[in-house]
Specification:
Blueprint (H helix, E strand, L loop, with lengths): L18 H9 L8 H13 L5 H14 L5 H4 L4 H8 L8 H19 L5 H6 L7 E2 L13 H13 L6 H10 L3 E2 L8 H14 L1
Parallel strand pairs: 1-2
Helix pairs in contact: 2-6, 2-9, 8-9
Length: about 200
């Protein structure tokens, strides 16, 4: 199921002896996402990580997606108090009342943006990087920032719209994860392929 090539050169945060981490690194992290609902799902997942290690979310992600109806905002936006109670009783997810409530209210904001304001979530997010992935060229892990002026601007705007758990550090991690920023190290085997993915989208318009 997971990538079975432990000796590939990777970013330092993906230990080669942890197949869950290496699979996520090799197949997901930094790959550009352009779908509205997929972007929403990742935003909620990164918000759930607040105060936790990402591996915690990876280990619980299957349960989280099942419990939250695939993190589909059209469903989550209509969750009731019974759904909140159900989620708080589910040991397979992150049982934080604040994070559960945030996922629901964030879904409602997403729906409002789309249905009332006519805002395409994909275009809205990608406009912050001029509709093309930021291509960094870090050689060392410590060169990567934890936030940038762009993540601060996006965080501020998301908060103004009513989103929760979208601080600038969380948002920078989100931007890395969904490919708005290519933060793979230049020595990482995924750096070139991820860079090419951004070029393909631009060529396709």
């Amino acid at each position: 199921m997971y990538t079975d090539i432990p000796d590939l050169p990777r970013c330092g945060w993906a230990p080669p002896d942890d197949p869950l981490y290496t699979h996520y690194h090799d197949t997901e992290w930094g790959r550009p996402i352009w779908d509205d609902k997929a972007l929403f799902s990742k935003l909620i997942q990164d918000g759930m990580q607040a105060g936790l290690a990402w591996i915690t979310i990876l280990r619980k992600r299957e349960n989280i997606l099942k419990a939250f109806d695939g993190l589909d905002p059209d469903i989550i936006a209509h969750y009731t108090d019974a759904d909140r109670a159900r989620l708080m009783g589910d040991a397979g997810i992150i049982r934080s009342k604040l994070k559960i409530n945030a996922a629901i209210s964030n879904a409602q904001v997403f729906i409002k943006m789309r249905d009332e304001d006519g805002i395409n979530f994909n275009e809205y997010l990608w406009d912050f990087v001029n509709a093309r992935p930021v291509q960094n060229s870090w050689k060392l892990p410590e060169q990567r920032p934890v936030k940038t002026p762009i993540s601060e601007a996006l965080s501020k705007d998301l908060k103004k719209r009513g989103f929760k758990f979208v601080g600038p550090v969380i948002i920078y991690a989100f931007m890395q994860a969904v490919g708005m920023i290519n933060d793979h190290l230049t020595t990482c085997h995924a750096y070139g392929p991820v860079k090419d993915m951004g070029k393909t989208k631009l060529q396709d318009g």
